[in-house]
Amino acid sequence: MLDGEVAGTVISPATADTSLDASLRQRLLSLDQGTMLDELDEDVEGTSARLAAAQKRINHVLTKAGMRGQLCIIVFLIAVLAVLVVVAFS
Fold it and tell me: How many folded domains does the chain comprise?
């Protein structure tokens, strides 16, 4: 009876090795994912900073242009969009 209880709690070296290997793989995968998330966070922060700078420049241009200048810019951008659509679909 004691042999049956001991046999149920003892694991083979192959099972222990497989379990350790899976645990190590999971740990390495988790470290890789953490590194990738850190890199993504840095990229997002850089992109956000560039976007904020671009918005600041656009606001400066629109402020200097005034209402009539803004209307001219909008008409110009619509014309550019129309040309791009024609070139893309022809």
Answer: 1
